[in-house]
Amino acid sequence: MKIQELADLMGLTPHTIRYYEKEGLLDGRHIQREKNNYRTYSDDAIERLKLIKKFQGIGCSLAELKTILRDHDTNARTNQEVIEWILEKIQEIERKKDEYDHMLETLNWMLTYRRLLIEDPRQAEAMMADYRLSMNSNGRNLS
Is CATH 1.20.1250.20 the classification given to domain 3-74? Predict the structure, then answer.
């Protein structure tokens, strides 16, 4: 299959597929060069790209992808090592989730405050006073 066919099938661009090849995520098992130097992709390329997309979907970086795929190809990790990696990834995602939850809480507070400035300025002042009080009691400063 040609690169455009593969790209369309996988929901990627040809540029992305070439990038994966350049980075070593796709190799001779996945790509054959014809005499005219055109790339022909095997069915294994489809499975490889599905695997890449799966790991990208859980937040793996390019460096992690390279390691994961190398270990996958060589069967280099024991089941216990894979379990430990999964647990580390879960912890990383939970930390990020906590950060996003905090960001959402802050943005929702800001939105409520700004709407109150329009609808009920006195309530907005009270909200800001409560915020300042809580920040001072936590040892933080607004400025």
Answer: no
